[in-house]
Design goal:
The complex is a heterodimer of chains A (341) and B (273). Chain A has 341 residues and is of the alpha/beta class. Helix content of chain A is 34%, strand content 18%. In chain B, strand 7, helix 2 and strand 8 form a beta-alpha-beta unit. The chains are: A alpha/beta (341), B alpha/beta (273).
Chain lengths: 341, 273
Amino acid sequence: MIIRREDLFLFFNRCISEKIDNYEEILLPKKNNKKDEAQFSFIKYNNDKKIEYDLESFRTIDPIKTFFYLSRENVSSTNIHSKKRIIAGIKACDLKALNILDKALINEDFIDPAYKNLRDNTLIISTDCNQITDSCHCNLVGGKPYAESNYDINLSKVNNNDYYYIVAGSEKGKKFIDTIKDHVAVNDAPNDVVSLVEENRKDIFNKLEKENKEFYHTDNFKELKNKNEKLWIENSEACVGCGACTNICPTCYCFILNDETEAEKFVKVRSYDSCQYHGYARVAGGDSPRAKMHQRFRNRYLCKFSYFDSNFDEIGCVGCGRCIDACAAEIDFRKVVKELS
Amino acid sequence: MKNPFEVIPGKIFEIIQESPLIKTLRIRPEKSIKFKTGQFVELSIPGIGEGPFTPSSSHFVSNTMDITIMKTGFVTDHVHELQVGDRVGIRGPYGKGYPIEKFKNKDVVIMGGGVGLAPTRSLFLTLIDEVDNYKSITFLGGAKTPKDFIYKDAISKWRKIDRVNFLRTVDLVPEDQKWDENTGVVTTLLEKIDIDPKNNPSVVCGPPIMMKFGTFALKDYGFTDENIYLSMEKKMYCGFGECRHCVIGKYYACKDGPVFTYEMIKNEEAIWE
């Protein structure tokens, strides 16, 4: 099926003004025009014509975790009810990350109530990447620049066509496409659409392969653990331990828990923490298993490629490249992985 | 949906000064808390913070809980200022405790040092509650000086129990203190016992340096890696495998531990630090 871009936005307008299916909020990537290159970040959709929404270029600056796993949250509250919302324009790398967070935060041992609530109340509309940015490297970690699973609805835009190829990926998505049909036209796809989408996907993937040629590595990351200390010291020399890489990583979810209790109620507040910080693993009395910067630097790589793999059956890097963009010391994650694995 | 961060409030009804730096808080929680010996709880002081502690009382007692705490950091400094009647919070219990069902009809050796005597006291009290279930219980306790020994008052009572052998040692005896038991590090007590290490369990809990050399000494004595149980102390915020601070390679100290066999973790990184 296909939906015209114009109609999709018409639907978005009606959706929030009429609270269709109780959806009250839509988050979409907005284009921020920087001098040298485009950047995207999620904002709450409104019908302001001056805002340029861009669903199909490449991933946003902000990782999707920031909308499900908030940087600071009162976790003691027993009465959590978030608004129903739609997030559209999520890219495959972020969906992969969300899938990892689902395993980490909703499992047989415990359920993080705040995360689950936001997860349950959100409809996920993913879109194929039609462009890549310098740090994109999902192809190096087994990813694709288009979603293969974990979405409710996926949209693929082809070349300069003014419509999206629309596919449901869940029961929830299927029902919602029916809802969309009640309001705007969703038509049968022309015969050639599927092959055009395939072709486009292949093109973007080939671009990624070309751009990341120098970083090519296997999926055997076991060597990371065995490399000698000297190499880790060399590779981490420029690192100042600011924690930007972990904060912006869509799969990092380490937190500290603070007590903000007042009066009779015990209140626990969780906030992002970073394994790059000196105090991260320090115990009472002052001992730390990773007192030196290069040990903490190394920990991040081992966590992504070894510990996540043991804990969740998949590695913790989705190849979004945000840590590369965020690094004040311009350390390229891909380069370190290549040199040490 | 159960909130894993839920706190059970409680009140302190007694405080025992065990040594200059160690106190035992006796707490009565509003709801009784059932735990398995070796499991831990998060104890919080309202508005200050919380920390992971292993109860030092028997797991057959659930309406009160003893927690023995050394003054050694921000939260524990505040713990030592608490008074009888003060309100605290408890989350948990978390993790896996000692598999005491595997200890049945065995000669059990427990090695504890410093404040590491606290979790081992819980184990010891739990075992002596059903002492007939075990062939023997040997306790090897260590402290820096005689003054640093905790649970002094109970020792003579414990020593009278049939099947129990309770040995103590101190690293050194300052001139102004008296001591007529063993002198030397805790592992020297292994020379004073005669137990067949084959198929019998041993437990070690104490400061990092003692964990390391205690484990090696138990190995040398002949205990197998599967039969050496370690109580691992790591930084733990959540207690149930979410915050990741306590990760030991593929394991979470909070969820998969804090009690591990040496066999499980011997190949993981930085276990002694």
